Task: structure prediction
Amino acid sequence: MINEGRGLKFLSEGIKRLKRLQKIYLNMYRCENIKDRDVKDLTQGIKRVPNLKSMALVFYNAVGITNQSLTNLRFVLQKQTHLQNLNLNFWSCWKITDEGLKYLSEGIKKTDTLQNFGLNFDSCTSISDEGIFSLTEALKMLEGLKNLHLNFRSTTITNKGVERLKEIIVNCGSLQDANLNLVSKEVSPLVLRDLNMRIDKIYAENSKKKNS
Result:
């Protein structure tokens, strides 16, 4: 267990010294003691590593973090000019709202080198279409995006949010594969089926190009 106010701060001090570090993978699965100030400590270290190519942070069931943590992650992303792979997992971080996703999206906009992107807000019940709209504005800026994995299952998004994501999928010329879990009470199965058909079409077209 990571102790509040200690573990991530110590880790951050070590990360600061690794100037050539290119990959970070931290899995804080069920670390319920983590608070916003701990995430801030972590991001202070990551900001000192300028050449990251891959970053994966798992905050599964870190119920103590709020929108403030996503604000600090925004500042990290704005500093990373070589990032190609990004995976962020906030499963069941129910205190995060659309406002937090908006902050995070502002950072994602700056990662124009990104090729592979995964974002998980499963069971974050305060995320709605408003957050999805902010995210899609950021995704439009990722001209080299090849793989997209999004999980917004059991949030409060509706058909409007799904339709907005579908526009991104259809119009992203660089996209090769997408995996989207958007099952929610307010989302129609027919809308999801249409989205999946669009994704299957993109995958089939790319497979055809590879084999030709």
Notes: The chain has seven helices and six strands. The chain has one domain: 7-211.
